[in-house]
Hints:
Blueprint: E1 2-6, E2 21-26, E3 40-42, E4 65-66, E5 69-70, H1 71-79, E6 84-87, E7 111-112, E8 120-121, H2 127-137, E9 140-145, H3 152-163, H4 170-177, E10 188-191, H5 204-220, E11 228-232, H6 240-249, E12 257-264, H7 279-306, E13 313-321, H8 339-354, E14 359-365, E15 375-378, E16 381-384, H9 386-394, E17 401-403, E18 405-409, E19 411-414, E20 417-420, E21 422-428, E22 434-440, E23 447-454, E24 460-466, E25 486-488, E26 491-494, E27 497-502, E28 506-513
This protein binds alpha-L-arabinofuranose.
Residues 44, 89-91, 193-194, 318, 365-366, 371 line the site of alpha-L-arabinofuranose.
Amino acid sequence: MRKIFLSLCFAHCAMTAFSQNQITLNADLAKTQISKHIYGHFAEHLGRCIYDGIYVGDKNAKIPNTNGVRNDVIKALKDLQIPNLRWPGGCFADTYHWKEAIGPKDKRKPIENLAWGNVKEDNSFGTNEFLDMCELLGAEPYLATNMNTGTVQEAVEWVQYANSKNGTSYLTDMRAANGRDKPWNVKYWGIGNESWDCGGDMKVEHYLNLYRQYATAMTSYANTEKLFRIAVGPGSPNHYHWTEEIMKTLPAKRFEGISIHHYSVIDWSKKGSSDQFSDKEYFITLEKAWFMEEFVRKNKEMMDKYDPEKRVALIVDEWGGWYETDPVGNGALYQQNTVRDAMIAGLTLNIFNNHADRVRMANLAQTVNVLQAVILTKAEKMVLTPTYHVMEMYKVHQDATLVPVQAVSNDFMMDGKRISAISVSASLDKSKKMHVSLVNLDNVNNQKVEISLKGYKAGKVTGRVLTSAKVQDGNTFDNPTKVTPGTFSDATISGNTLVVNMPKNAVVVLEISE
Ligand code: AHR
């Protein structure tokens, strides 16, 4: 059994094997806003994410679209209240030259996608298409600059092209000639991507010197809106010194956020199948997903040392499960999405919510047809994955006020290893409704959970649940609704206590009103 103090503190303590899951929700201590940007997404020029998945262009006009973007995908993402979208990569961004992908399509420069399979990239989806699509979705764009094969000048000009007032330079003239008069005012700019690996294999000292050039020039030139500049942070536990170097050496006026990446992968050399996996592989994946708690906490501790006021945001701009590519999907890094992924999503989003004082943006990798996608497509067909449904159930937390949580969870065990079976986070919305998201990771046992409510008089509870008989279950093009949310009615209120009977491998979101 494990004891978890979330928001107030977080710890694991051994308890007797028979005690139940005990949770306290401290509504009286609620003060931190859960940024809606925690619920962000990431779309890279990789496999069938952009082409086929999001953008079908003119050549495929048979699939209903708006300016080449699939209407079914637009609707699905709007229903999720997608708050932001990171683009064009990932590693693809590290060799991307934005000017090759603007203007008349027949004049654009086809390039080789050096990061992903050396396939031909015709550049028909570029800056205008992406930023117009974000407007359509009501999502904030988050652009990743090329700090590897690109130049400072190129990045500065990208900012001007996107953000400067009409008529200020040849760049805004170019923008107007390309059909867009007014600026898009892009706020979020990543300076580099994985600069310790595909982004240039740099040492942190080199990265930071280069970063200063980019960050200074990008904000000093013809820029009407203040940018939110995101520095590359560590991508693995051995890299915490990246965080320390950034916090210690970068002047506050040069950065607003630090990005970190963490994937739940069993073993990079043997990632396992996305939907044919053993109980053991299931457990290891969730153990890796729980690691996000430690990764965020350790980065926070480092940041707190230099920034106790919490000015700088921690941004997890790549996360999710990563398995072997499924040949069925006909594209690089395509994988099926199952109840296991719903567990990763519910758990990870709870972790982010509970660290909302520092985690202010996150981006699930990746939106369509790649890694832990929320949407899968096959020609004109589209499937919403279990992960999609978790994001949809959790959207009630967007911009709500975090309710600090203390939790004691039963163990979920495998081969002598243990992780917490229960994960939880809670928030209060503007109308004082409380939402509690619970995950039972255990794929064998149902879990009874007792929740004590402090500072909140519960009158009524309703709920939704996402589960399925097997953790390998997912939604396919032949059976697209196998795993979909249903009504949950196994929660009862008695005085200040709420008792919830969680089915095995389930995500439950409760709505409680006074
Ligand atoms: O999301 C896939 C890849 O994972 C990204 O391109 C890269 O940044 C990371 O290594």
